[in-house]
Amino acid sequence: MKKWNPLILFLLVLAMSACQTPEGTNEDEKIPDGAIPIEDYKAMKLENIEALEAKVWGENVQADEKAQRQLLIAYSEWGNNFREDERTPEFMFQGGRIAMILNKPRRAIELFLGVHDGFPNYNKRVESAYLVGFIYDDMLGDREMARKYYLKVIELYPESTWAESAKALNDQLYMSDDQIIQMFQEKNAQK
After folding, report:
1. How far is Cα 97 from Cα 72, in angstroms, rounded to an integer?
2. What is the C-alpha to C-alpha distance for residues 117 and 97, in angstroms, rounded to an integer?
3. How far apart are CA 71 and CA 52, in angstroms?
4. What is the pLDDT along the chain (191 residues), one digit of tens a residue?
5. Are 16 and 8 in contact (CB under 8 A)?
6. What are the domain boundaries of the chain?
7. What DSSP letter does each residue of 93-105 carry, written as one string?
8. What is the rounded distance in angstroms from the CA atom of residue 150 to the CA atom of residue 44?
9. Which CATH superfamily groups domain 36-173?
């Protein structure tokens, strides 16, 4: 008769016991202490966004930077957790606007690109692509990236008013201030 090594026997028993669950329980049914249902979590997050929006976007409101930062975080969390919700692209777009206000151009670009690339039916998709070019141009001073996104808007959405604006700004990218002033004076003289 073959003898079993006690260590191997111990490991075998340990492995078998780890695979068993107590009778009457299902691994999928275990809910950690303090957990809340996803619907309640979503409602809580939406309530927080609405309260912060009233502080930031409400009438006769002087939004403080703290409320703006909190709203940016709330919009970002919503976008990360609820991609399929119909409010997500608008929340991400508004997050991009707040990031611009807070002088966080890289975060604004991430949000606007997320809107453009992730929500093909959203009505501010073209504006989002345009704003990426504008941020590279105006906030970051990166003319090459600005040109790339302005040309993308012109190519993908040639009939839009955003394409007209992108074309005008693209034409001015490498002009000096004096050249831009001269261009406007010539246009005014033609009228």
Report:
1. 9
2. 17
3. 6
4. 555 566 565 555 555 555 555 554 555 666 676 788 888 899 999 999 999 999 998 877 777 899 999 999 999 999 999 999 999 999 999 999 999 999 999 999 999 999 999 999 999 999 999 999 999 999 999 999 999 999 999 999 999 999 999 999 998 887 777 766 776 677 777 77
5. no
6. 36-173
7. HHHHHHHHHTT-H
8. 39
9. Tetratricopeptide repeat domain (1.25.40.10)
